[in-house]
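Sorry to interrupt, but I need a hand with the structure work. Could you write out one complete protein record for me, on any chain you like? Just paste the record in under my message, thanks.

. . .
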Amino acid sequence: MTEAVLSDLSIDALRAGDRAEFARLVDAASGPIYRLALKMLANSQDAEDVLQSTFLKAYQHLGEFEARSSLSTWLYRIAVNETLMLLRKRRPEVPLSDEEVDSLEGITYPGIRLQVWEDLPEENLLSSEARAVLDRAIQHLPEILRVVFLLRDVEGLSIQETVEALGVSESAVKTRLLRARLRLRDELSSYFGRRGVKRRQ
C-alpha cells in the first residue's frame, strides 16, 4: 500500500469518523486490497464485494483500532478474513487449515525439480507467457498457501506483518510460504522443462 499516505493519515480523525480522512484511506488502500482479493478469488465481482465489505468493516471498527499494528496490516487482516469467509461460504470444501491441506495433498510435494528452476534464464521468468503461467500456478495453490504467498511475495509484507495480517504464528507463515514457493517452483519448472524438450525436438 502507499505507506507514505497511510502514515500521514490522522488516526484520531479516522476514529472520530472524519469522512474526508476516510476517503484518503480508501484512495490509498483500494488498489492493493482489490488486487489481493482478485488473485485470491479469480473473480472481479467477488473482489469488488470484498473491497466494499473490507472498507465497511474498517469504517465500523476504526474506533477499536489500537495501532498495535500498522493501518495497512490491519486493513489486510480485514480483507483476508472477508476473502476467506466468502470462499468458505461459496465453497465449503475449501481447505482453510494446515490439517485440511495436508489431508488433501499428503503433506509432501513429490517431483520438485529445483535444478530446472535454478537454470532458467531471467528473461524467461520475466516474459508475459511466464507471468501468465505463474498467475495460473498461483490459482492452483490451496487458499491458505496462496494468501501467504500473495501477502509476502506479491504485496511485499514482512514476515511479522504477514503474521499480524493472518493472525497465525510466525512458524505457520514460514512453513506455508515455503510450501507455496515449492509448489510454484515445481509447476514453473515443469512448464519450462516441457518447453526445453520441445525446443530440442
In short: Residues 109 and 135 are 19 Å apart (CA to CA). Residues 170-200 form the longest helix (31 residues). Confidence is low (pLDDT under 50) at residues 106-120. Residues 3-90 form a domain with the Rna Polymerase Sigma Factor; Chain: A fold (CATH 1.10.1740.10).
